[in-house]
Amino acid sequence: MSARRALERDFSSKTVKARRILKHTFDLLMLLLALIGIWIASYYTVRSIIQRTDWQVSDLALFLLQSGIATVYVAIVFAVFFLFVWRKMNNILTQITDALRRIAKGEFNVSIAMEERVDGEYDKIIAGINDMAIGLQEMEQLRQEFISNVSHEIQSPLTSIRGFALALQKEELSEEERKCYLQIIETETIRLSKLSDNLLKLTSLESEHHVMEVSSYRLDEQIKKVVLAAESLWGAKNIEMELSLSNATIQADEDALSQVWTNLIHNAIKFTPEEGHMHIGMHMEDDRVEVSIADDGIGMAKEHLPYVFERFYKADASRNRTLGGNGLGLSIVKKIVEMHQGTVHVQSELGKGSTFTVKLPLNPALEAASAGHPSITR
């Protein structure tokens, strides 16, 4: 929820409370006036009866008679009042039941109108149902978008594989063409495998049951190993690789962070041109470490930057497809970094390269405790 929406809800809550206090005060005054009115009405009723019948009654009998008539008037007034309230509450319950029934059927575009005269727990229930419907509607939109994106990502390589598999059945194909088609099929199969693997990783990371195995290790040594493991990639493009790493020992999930550096470094290599330049730096800031991975590649336009960490987002779909991306790598990076109580952001300029900066606490367990998050499993 955005800060603006939170402020609006806070203001709305205070307004509702103020209205409720004023309403209860007004209701008490009206009740007092009604009781006074009933007592006056009973007094004049008894007086009228005595004047018409010339009864001679004692003061006690007069008081009892007046009290009895007042009781009858109160009973009538309360019967009418409760009948009105019962009809109103029954109408509210009907709306609530209907809304819950529609939500249960998967219809999330549901909203119950808040009446100013609704008090007690009903207004909380109605507000809760409205919030639940909005949340479920947003989740449903995300689910539909996710299914659409996954279907699109799967359909593209499958179509390619099917087309080239049919082409391979032609007998007039040369051996060179056959090898080319087989290589394309292999490439598309690898794309499908990577997509499946990334989906499983992202699902595991977003699961409530995902456990981080935290250990103490040298972060600079880990980054060096990832860079060396990717030497065949940046070496093939004659990329100048520059490292500026200070010594740093961190408490973290080593395998998970290795995935972060692998994704970011491979991404930078992918979008850096032949004989380009990359710089990987790391320095300490109090009890946090900052790692930056910069390249002088093709970069991204400013309007794409807020969305690069979203699932399946691609600044240039055709370009990413050519390079074999599926739009999940940066989503995985962001999720892992956030699980370590860290942050990741990007600076980029079209045609001039990109810089991804990751900031991590040296001890995420202490960071989580101070922020009120659940402790990280060792």
Automatic annotation (TrEMBL):
Write the record's keywords in alphabetical order, separated by commas.
Answer: ATP-binding, Cell membrane, Kinase, Membrane, Nucleotide-binding, Phosphoprotein, Transferase, Transmembrane, Transmembrane helix, Two-component regulatory system
Transmembrane domains' residue ranges: 21-41, 61-86
Return the EC number: 2.7.13.3
Q: Which GO molecular-function terms appear in the entry?
A: ATP binding; phosphorelay sensor kinase activity
Q: Where in the cell is it found?
A: Cell membrane
**Protein origin, superkingdom:** Bacteria
User: Mind telling me which PROSITE patterns this protein's record contains?
Assistant: HAMP, HIS_KIN
Q: Which SUPFAM superfamilies match?
A: ATPase domain of HSP90 chaperone/DNA topoisomerase II/histidine kinase, Homodimeric domain of signal transducing histidine kinase
Give the protein name, as stated in the record: histidine kinase
Q: What is the lineage of its organism?
A: Bacteria, Bacillati, Bacillota, Bacilli, Bacillales
